[in-house]
C-alpha cells in the first residue's frame, strides 16, 4: 500500500488529501486545491472510492470535481449530495491493501470519523502530529460554533483505546505525516500526547 499526499503542493489553504493505492484505490478527503483531480490522475487511471473524514470546506470543496472526473463511491458519516455509502462507528472500509475500522471521533466536527488499520491511522483533524500550535502531538481546534473540547477529548481517548500497537504511520488532515521511530515516539505516543494537551483545557490558539 502506497500513500500520496495529492495536495502537498497547494498554494492555498487545504487539508492533506491522501491517495491510497493498492488493491483498492481510495482518496481520503478531496481537499480544496483546484486541480487536485489532475494530481490524482498523475498516479492512477481510476479511483474506486473517496472517504470523507468530515465535511469542513477544506476537506470537501473539490469533492464534486473528483466525482465528476472519476465517478467513485463516496463514503461519509453525514449526508452529502455525493455520498453513496453512509459510515458509522465500527464499520470497515477497504483501502489500498488494508481493512480500516471507522471510529466516530466528533468534537472538531460533529460528523468526524477516523480510520484505523493494521499499520496506518488516518486521523483527519482529531489528532495531528504538528500544526503550528503544538509539535509531536496536537488536536483539532474546538473554539468555533458547533465544536466541543469535551467531546474531542472523549474521541481521542476512544481512538487511543482502539489503536493497535502495529500502527506505525499516522496520516493527519494537516501538518506532516508521522512515522514511528523504533528509538523514539510511536503513533500511540503522539496520540497520547495530544490527549494530554487537550485535557489541559488551554486555548489552542490563544489569540484566535
TrEMBL record:
InterPro entries: MBL_Glyoxalase_II, Metallo-B-lactamas, RibonucZ/Hydroxyglut_hydro
Domain Metallo-beta-lactamase: 14-174
One family name in Pfam for this protein: Lactamase_B
Molecular functions per Gene Ontology: hydrolase activity; metal ion binding
SUPFAM superfamilies: Metallo-hydrolase/oxidoreductase
The keyword NADP is annotated on this UniProt entry: no
Keyword Zinc: yes
Origin superkingdom: Archaea
Cofactor: Zn(2+)
UniProt keyword list: Hydrolase, Metal-binding, Zinc
Protein's name in the database: Glyoxylase, beta-lactamase superfamily II
Taxonomic lineage of the native organism: Archaea, Methanobacteriati, Methanobacteriota, Stenosarchaea group, Halobacteria
